[in-house]
Amino acid sequence: MAPHTKVAIIGSGPAGHTAAIYLSRAELKPVLYEGMLAGGTAAGGQLTTTTDIENYPGFAKGIGGSELMDEMRAQSLRFGTEIITETITRVDLKSKPFRLWREYEDADADEPAHTADAVIIATGANARRLDLPGEDKYWQNGISACAVCDGAVPIFRNKPLVVIGGGDSAAEEAIFLTKYGSHVTVLVRKDKLRASKTMAKRLLANPKVTVKFNHVAVQVQGEEKARGLMTHLRVKNTVTNAEEVLEANGLFYAVGHDPATALIKGQVDTDDEGYIVTKPGTSYTSLPGVFAAGDVQDKRYRQAITSAGSGCMAALEAEKYLADLEDDEPTLDKEQDAKKPESNGDTAPEYRSNPLL
Ligand SMILES: Cc1cc2nc3c(=O)[nH]c(=O)nc-3n(C[C@H](O)[C@H](O)[C@H](O)COP(=O)(O)OP(=O)(O)OC[C@H]3O[C@@H](n4cnc5c(N)ncnc54)[C@H](O)[C@@H]3O)c2cc1C
């Protein structure tokens, strides 16, 4: 028989660990699968791929991305979360309890490695890259996939910056970056923007922005030393094939993200971009007992703090779901129910059984 837990968390970014902290403090003994280079990212998620985090509250001097995730992991462990360093490669969310298979232990077996009454999906998303020559060398040394996260760092202050992309995100990021850079060039592969009319108008009207239509990036250039910074970008006109080198101390990709939802495809509702659909303002997915938190269900904010916040919501909602399941069981412990304090009416009835509130 596969080991059974009340709740399993899949994913190890801020959403997964926040859910684990809340659930373990509520003594629900969660199991968290942190992944073994799941989707090419180390356990700990996207923040392990970056250096300083300056916008996560509580760290006035900033904190390293990996250091922040090590702290979250330690906090999950401290309250009794069981962390398993494996990737979940298959789930059966149609059966009750839910069934989970691990990549190495039993990927092809009939019996799953694990069963759970509730599952929290916190598998995150990955920013698309372009695989340009020079990209690996200058990643995080000038190249970023998140203007809101990195725009304010000193290497970009009063420097020429480039954004790649033609959609709303690219327009928003470019306008945001005009606060910091001396000028922002936007490279758009086609002859028009995909952004909404309002965003496009705002972008084109900004005196600190130049939009280069029919242009793609071909090579990132920069200092030839360890941790050297990018300084230039070679670009190509897709109509004439003419190339030129732009001065650029920052390069921001706004070419989309891929939510890590292959695992649940066809079992839980996703939108046309693959993000898990949650009921607005909650972590509820289309399947009762399955909750989603973090970037896997959020294509708008995509921040560590919003992921952590939604991890908290998923934990509280999973906890309520589990309490309701127990209430429905014929073996309900009536004695324990009788011991519950009477509500004084101050607490919302649906959260009365939640020990955290
Ligand atoms: C370069 C960079 C810099 C950033 N800087 C900032 C910043 O300064 N401030 C900020 O607020 N945000 C920043 N962000 C955004 C932030 O990292 C994300 O919003 C946040 O990490 C999302 O958290 P998450 O919990 O949803 O999942 P993720 O961080 O995406 O982590 C999910 C992880 O779960 C694991 N996993 C996935 N699938 C499975 C599976 N099947 N089984 C087991 N494990 C699995 C993987 O390790 C995966 O990476 C940055 C992002 C990037 C890429």
Automatic annotation (TrEMBL):
Q: Which reaction does it catalyse?
A: [thioredoxin]-dithiol + NADP(+) = [thioredoxin]-disulfide + NADPH + H(+)
- EC number(s) in its UniProt entry? 1.8.1.9
Compositional bias, Basic and acidic residues, is annotated for: 331-343
Cofactor(s) this protein cannot do without? FAD
Keyword tags: Disulfide bond, FAD, Flavoprotein, NADP, Oxidoreductase, Redox-active center
Q: Which GO terms describe its molecular function?
A: thioredoxin-disulfide reductase (NADPH) activity
Q: What Gene Ontology cellular component terms go with this record?
A: cytoplasm
Cofactor remark:
Binds 1 FAD per subunit.
Q: Which residues form the FAD/NAD(P)-binding domain?
A: 6-311
Q: Which GO terms describe its biological process?
A: removal of superoxide radicals
Transmembrane segments annotated in the record for this chain: none
Where in this protein does the record put region Disordered? 324-357
Read off the NCBIfam families from this record. Answer: TRX_reduct
Instruction: State whether it acts alone or in a complex, and with which partners, per the record.
Output: Homodimer.
Its protein name is: Thioredoxin reductase
Record the organism: Capronia epimyces CBS 606.96
